[in-house]
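Incident log, structure service

09:12 report received: a user says their structure output differs between two submissions of the same chain.
09:20 pulled the input from the user's history:
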Amino acid sequence: MDRVHVPDIAFVGVHLTVADMAASVAFYRRIGLDVPEPVGGGTHVEIDLGHGNRLALSTVEVTRMYDPGWREPSRPPAGALQFDLPSREAVDALYDDLVDAGHHGHLAPVDAFWGNRYAEVDDPDGNIVGFHGLTAP
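09:34 re-ran on a clean worker, output below:
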């Protein structure tokens, strides 16, 4: 099969369908993202992640407007959103804060084989969100 070449393709971000917009907005604000107020009656928001990338959140109703066949995932996601934090201690502090606030700790902070402090927490919809602390000096 021949490969199709698409010139100037650019990654722009990730779109997640969420069950509860308010809970998702609160989570992503809690981790430190500058989340604007959702539009469309609270059904959609786009979070600027810098460098032309964004994290978009839409309710199930919005997603079904353009994808009537959309269905809820039947298993945990295979990937994780990844964020850098300024220090190894920040990973521990953010993990503790999120778990104390009732979010599921997917992976408690560890000193990963690649040198970073690393932890994962599930967002309100079960998406895995990973946090990297800078490597030790």
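09:41 both user submissions now match this output. Likely a transient worker issue. Closing.
09:42 reviewer note: The helical segments are 21-30, 60-66, 88-100. Residues 92 and 125 are 22 Å apart (CA to CA).
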